[in-house]
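Morning - pyridoxal-5'-phosphate inputs below, output right after.
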Amino acid sequence: MASSRSIPSIDLLLKREAFVQLIDQYGRSLVVSAVRQAASQWRATVSQDADQATPAPDPAAWLELHTAGILAGDTIPSLAPVINATGVIIHTNLGRAPLARAAVEHAAHVGSGYSNLEYDLHAGDRGSRHVHAERLLCALTGAEAAVITSNNAAATLLVLATLAAGREVIVSRGELVEIGGGFRVPDVMAQSGAVLREVGTTNRTRVTDYAAAISDRTALILRVHPSNFRIEGFTERPALSDLADLGRRFSVPVFEDLGSGWLGLPHPTPWPDALANEPTVGQSVKAGVDLVAFSGDKLLGGPQAGIIVGRATLMDKVRTHPLMRAVRAGKMTYAALEATLGLWQREPARAQIPVVEMLLMPIAHIERRAQALADAITMKAPDLRCVIVDGMSTIGGGSAPQSQIPTKLLALTSAARSATDIESALRTGTPPVITRIQNDAVLLDLRTVREDDDVLLERLVSAFGVSER
Ligand SMILES: *Cc1c(COP(=O)(O)O)cnc(C)c1O
């Protein structure tokens, strides 16, 4: 005879009102599979309670609850927004550049319907996606032509494959870098089919080193922005213009992987000192570099994309290479990129790009926000101690190496809970808040927190600092 711990048949269960509602919401097949999972959980836990000391719950009610839980868990996206309180502006693990509102809206607008992605409205005929964003990129960088790819790694691979497969690429030994996340210059080179020709030494490479390596096997001179690392002291690398002159003299194109894609356009409030030596795309074009590749979602502040700008004759070859099809960008990327470039174009609109806003945020403003947050937290959660301390925000994303901007940090401590405890509670909350720990304090840098999120952040922090007494 069935004990109180055995469960009704699935057919019977599914007739119950709660399950009918779940089927309306999720469809029959998902519900059936979830109810089977819940039933096996029941068998593994409740019905194994051998001594039956605890009273058995009603199996149908138990299964309703657990099935609903399984369905909810299985159908929420795993990708979700987080609050970045680390102060790292281009945070590689947290999705790099946040998009401007105009970029999000344009992507949503274009993406939710049909578009002229590959349709020439004037000719009424097939067009090319390559025209989008090109005019703006040329205007902003001084280049003749532009191409968009899925990311900068793809852009670099594409250029190398197009211009140098089976032939030699000359690179300084000081620039054979790993950018992080598996982007190693020698490996990308190998994948493109190009042959690496190293010149110079780790710390010093001269134009004459490049010149001596040029032969009839040479396809390209490659320059790489060392991004996330810096060689200090006795160092030398040729000026870009000297390298470009050399290339022109021997009819060897010069290609630069610039990484961060800093435009460095003039702004009424000066850019942070940390960017003073960050090379700009415009400088490379002006110096005579033939092709320049960079990311769309680093200092440009746009969507994940690779951008190649440079000479039209070379760009035609890049566009028609078979790899182009494999690394091209989608319509949402073009839309978000064009909108971001549109903001760059209009000086008064530039600060609407979140990366620009964070770079330019005055320290006094950050301090005011931190103080307001501290006051609200201390009022609600007397167990928490808040102090405002000096600190550094980091630009990140392989921009100027170790480049930092002075900031004010909210340092959080509690007599009742350890810093690691607070850090992990914040990190696993909804939404997650990412912080860092230093000297047993949890540090929050509001430079990278959207101002709209200050109130939410205050609630999240206060919530677990409220005295339990
Ligand atoms: C960031 C970076 C890359 C990789 O760019 P992705 O957009 O991440 O593919 C390549 N080269 C340099 C110099 C970089 O800084």
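Note: The chain has a mean pLDDT of 92.

O.
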